[in-house]
Amino acid sequence: MADNHKMWQELGMDVETHDLLCEALPQAFGDVFLSQKDRPNKMDYFNMVVADIHGIRPSELIEHQKNGGKVVGSFCIHVPDEVVIAAGAIATGLCSGSQFWVPGGEKVLPTATCPLIKASLGARFDRTCPFFRICDLFVGETTCDGKKKAWEVLSEDAPMYIMDIPQMKRQDDFEKWEKEIKNYIKKLEELTGNTVTQDSLHDAILTVNAKRKALQRLNEFRKLENIPISGRDVLLITQIAFYDDPKRFAQMVNILCDELEQRKKDNFSVYEKGTKRILLTGTPLSIPNWKLHQIIETSGGAVVCEEMCTGIRYSEALVNEEKASMEKMIENLAQRYLGNINCACFTPNKSRIDDIIRLAKEYKADGVIDVNLKFCNIYDIEGYFVEKALADAGIPCIGIETDYTDEDAEQLKTRIGAFIEMLS
Ligand code: SF4
Ligand code: SF4
Asked: Cβ distance 94 to 75 under 8 Å?
């Protein structure tokens, strides 16, 4: 901890305020995770990562910088990590999921902005997150209006680069996105002084795909009748995927999956018989936002799948692994990063609705909870189609809106508890 303090001071952080966050995290983590029965032993690695989330990984990033490397932070799964890795830099996620950072965001943004955006800016402006101090470049995107405008504010304090994401998926849009990826490659080459080559891009595609494959393997266990790992633990692992070293992360997930294979053979479930299977869909749940999983899984439910960017959307589709020309590999990246992500920023967005129905069936969900972060208009409006399609498919659904505070926790417990009871 003393070493961490020194590092945080050198990063120019507000260490005193940051200590308050460090004090609160172990209690929250203990309540949500360590209190669970029958957790797999190989969750130890992920526990350790979270226990020292502002220590271990930041010090690795700083070490990389001391050796001349760069660190690039992003806020959206549309931004291809492969480009960063191919340029010899380290990619890290920056989306923030704690109420702790929201008031800082409200100093520079309207209150009626989604908590994810407010927390992200608060973490930077209040100097209370090491990742937001370390990054050499912050990569924003033009997904929702809130983010677009927030990047302008953030650029007053941080070196920003913006990728212009198309809002439709026509042929022209794919071509435009390919150009954006090419420009991003140039930007990363300038930043790092390294050239992105056919070999380095292909290696990076394999590295990120290996991470996705490990997460796919993990998610497959959630389709079983006897589920060997809780939804909370899978959420935690997915959240860590945005920060950890991709190769080590994939290795640790696969080691965990080996343990789960044995549980599968033994028909071992971490849930009691009769637990209702819930699919979550909607806005992302960034670390340490564990509120909904905790409520659902202590109210007779099991979260079996998240149709979210912090869920299946992050890992389900792979980038084509062929080693082709640069042009072709960039086209393959564009296909994956535009065609396979069904964010509500797109219009129309029917593939997301189709995905929800498909996933509800694949994961044998008894019901769906459509989650909206307060002030996220695009997911809120799309909820109309989500709920309509689920009603047509005969799958029970409730829509809920929440934020990062605990103020609505009791009310959510009542509503979610009643929904799960209704599924019985
Ligand atoms: S919800 Fe949309 S804007 Fe947010 S991370 Fe996902 S793709 Fe990006
Ligand atoms: S949750 Fe909605 S409003 Fe918030 S950043 Fe994502 S898309 Fe934008």
From this structure: yes
What is the rounded distance in angstroms from the CA atom of residue 394 to the CA atom of residue 357? 10
Are residues 341 and 333 in contact, defined by beta-carbon separation less than 8 angstroms?
no
164-181: pLDDT as tens digits: 999 999 999 999 999 999
Indicate whether residue 379 lines ligand 2 (CB < 6 A).
yes
For ligand 2, is residue 114 a contact (CB within 6 Å)? yes
Question: What one-letter code names the amino acid at 132?
Answer: F
In angstroms, rounded to a whole number, what is the distance separating the alpha carbons of residues 184 and 63?
24
Question: 140 in ligand 1 pocket by Cβ < 6 Å?
Answer: no
- For the chain, what's the residue count? 424
Q: Is the pLDDT of residue 391 over 90?
A: yes
Q: What digits encode the pLDDT tens for the residues 315-342? A: 999 999 999 999 999 999 999 999 999 9
- Quickly tell me which residue has 């209690």 as its tokens: 27
Q: At what angle do helices 326-334 and 171-192 cross, to 10 degrees?
A: 120
Q: Which of 238, 368, 362, 384 is nearest to 296 (CA)?
A: 368
**Which of 96, 144, 314, 346 should be mutated for ligand 2, with most atoms under 8 A from CB?**
144
Q: What is the DSSP string of 131-181?
A: HHHH-SEEEEE-SSHHHHHHHHHHTTTS-EEEE---SS-SHHHHHHHHHHH
Please indicate whether residue 97, judged by its CB atom, sits closer than 6 Å to ligand 1: no
CB-count burial class (<10 Å; 0-12, 13-18, 19+) for 360: buried
Q: Which of 423, 36, 22 is nearest to 232 (CA)?
A: 36
